[in-house]
Amino acid sequence: TWKWVVGPMFLYLCERLVRFWRSQQKVVITKVVIHPFKTIELQMMKKGFKMEVGQYIFVKCPAVSKLEWHPFTLTSAPEEDYFSIHVRIVGDWTEGLFNACGCDKQEFQEAWKLPKIAVDGPFGTASEDVFSYETVMLVGAGIGVTPFASVLKSVWYKYCHDATNLKLKKIYFYWLCRDTHAFECIDITVLKGHNAAISNSVFTLSFMFHFSQATHFAVHHEEEKDVITGLKQKTLYGRPNWENEFKTIAEKHPGSRIGVFLCGPEALADTLNKQSISNSEADPRGVHFIFNKENF
Prior knowledge:
metal ion binding
């Protein structure tokens, strides 16, 4: 038995040593932003830190717990000079981090009073493959939009500087939320900046809510910009008909490999996986949907 145990135990100890070494590297919190809907954004800097879109890190705050590490998706783009995470306050640890950062106080918090943060990572996810496709579908459910915030920011930076080598040409972006407050968790300023590109059919952004929110905003449907997002694309209400969405995209992009990326619950993953399979053609020259997922 020991021959089968000693190998995994050795690898586990190596992993713990690497994490301990990384935890000793200095991390500076440069900015703390309080968003509505019980969400805070931590912008940080760390020497030698390099990331790709959609990756995640493990975070430890000794002021809250000396042993607990928690995973968070990076919401910043690799082109930015900092890395950031969004933390929704839903438990004891996140509540402790909220208080340790002084977010429960009304007065301005001095930088030297901010708690020490340890970071391990970044670690790769399926979202890193976004730039391997010409056409992608990005589906985020609630706070699951965080990896795609990083993707959209990175795409915007690439198009602003040099898009000649960028393979990605079309993005279908779906953000499913139970209520309008979820939009306030993530700064959608970067999406508003896409308006010029959207008008040239570079991107398609679709925002979808549950039907219960439809009546409140029905009177604003005829306005030029959406009252929730400020974008020219109108917000859609109710659960999306995924079969119709896949068929429509397949008709628009015949003979293409289309990446489907999800960050959301397992039930939605099963639905999108089945649609990806059923709408892919047997002919190698036909359209194919490649499903990738991250669950929370």
